[in-house]
Amino acid sequence: MSNEVLISYRYALFHVFRLHLQRAWAGCCVCAVIVLVTAGCGVTRTESPHFVALLAPFEGRYREIGYQALDAAQLALAQSRLQEPIDVLAVDDGGSVESAVLRARALSSNRQVVAVIVLGYAATDDATLSAFGDLPVIVAGHWGATSSADNIFLMAPTELPEALTISPRIDILDAAALEVPLVGGEIFALEQLADLRNDLTGITLISSASLPDEDFRQRYLATDAFAPEPNLIATQTYEAMHWYLDGLPPREHPLYFYTYNEQGQLEPAEAVP
């Protein structure tokens, strides 16, 4: 087992136990912490599951990114028709590029990991993406990712950075203090923004994802009693997982522009900046 791969405590309490009940595959041992088994561990298995890893923040200020993504990935997996045993492996990015790089290296060396979906600044940094080697990686959203490697698939349109008026990797505390009008990225979709800024008018959010509709919302909330209200991060992760599960070639998405209404909810922008 690699010491670099850590799974958040909350995930271990709430989600792994749920997966154990719902997907008790023969020969698959699911504990409070998912153990990445190597050949030298002396464990006998009749069939080893494969994992699509989800590298994102599950601790700290940006933890809502990870939890939005996790249930969306599980929803996409539940709706797939795959016959082979496969599951989602949630991995905390450690809160820094340095720690994310270590986790990326650990994932790249594990043969049970067949692909990775990444979200958040640390997981999408060029250094982290390079550490995956030739492992297929889907960047769910933009997050300022710029890698052009053949194994890195960017969901965001190439023209997205040109539409932003601020840094695509700005810290949310700095973002909350900016003057409007502005056009920003996924960081402005986080729920905590409303706690950091009283007035959300004048903010335009640009994304490669569509807003969750009611059907998606109901299916998403049904995946877990602890599932949060889904937002853009959930929908972009859901589609990223389908890219892999359905074997579809990655494609660039159109640009979507959103603004906040008086109730503090995102809605399609009436005019594109």
SSE order and pairing:
Blueprint: H1 9-22, E1 50-56, H2 63-78, E2 86-92, H3 97-108, E3 113-118, H4 126-131, E4 137-139, E5 152-154, H5 160-163, H6 172-176, E6 182-184, H7 193-196, E7 203-207, H8 214-221, H9 232-245, E8 256-260, E9 266-268
Parallel strand pairs: 1-2, 1-3, 3-4, 4-5, 6-7
Antiparallel strand pairs: 7-8, 8-9
Helix pairs in contact: 2-9
Based on the model shown, name its key terms.
single chain, 273 residues, alpha/beta, five-stranded parallel β-sheet, four-stranded mixed β-sheet, 15% strand
Describe the structure.
With 273 residues, the protein is of the alpha/beta class. It is built from nine helices and nine strands. The protein has helices spanning 9-22, 63-78, 97-108, 126-131, 160-163, 172-176, 193-196, 214-221, 232-245; strands spanning 50-56, 86-92, 113-118, 137-139, 152-154, 182-184, 203-207, 256-260, 266-268. The strands form two sheets. A five-stranded parallel beta sheet has the order 2-1-3-4-5, with helices on both faces. Strands 6-7-8-9 form a four-stranded mixed beta sheet, with no helix packed on it. Mean pLDDT is 83; it is low at 1-46.
Quick description:
By secondary structure, the chain is α/β, with parallel strands linked by helices.
List SSEs in N-to-C order: HEHEHEHEEHHEHEHHEE
The major β-sheet equals: 5 strands, parallel
Average residue-wise pLDDT: 83
Overall shape? globular
Strand content range: 15-25%
Distance between the termini: 49 Å
Spatial sequence of strands, sheet with the most strands: 2-1-3-4-5
Low-confidence segments, given as residue ranges, are 1-46
Rounded radius of gyration (Å): 18 Å
Specify the structural class.
Answer: alpha/beta
Number of helices: 9
Give the tally of β-strands: 9
Percent helix: 25-40%
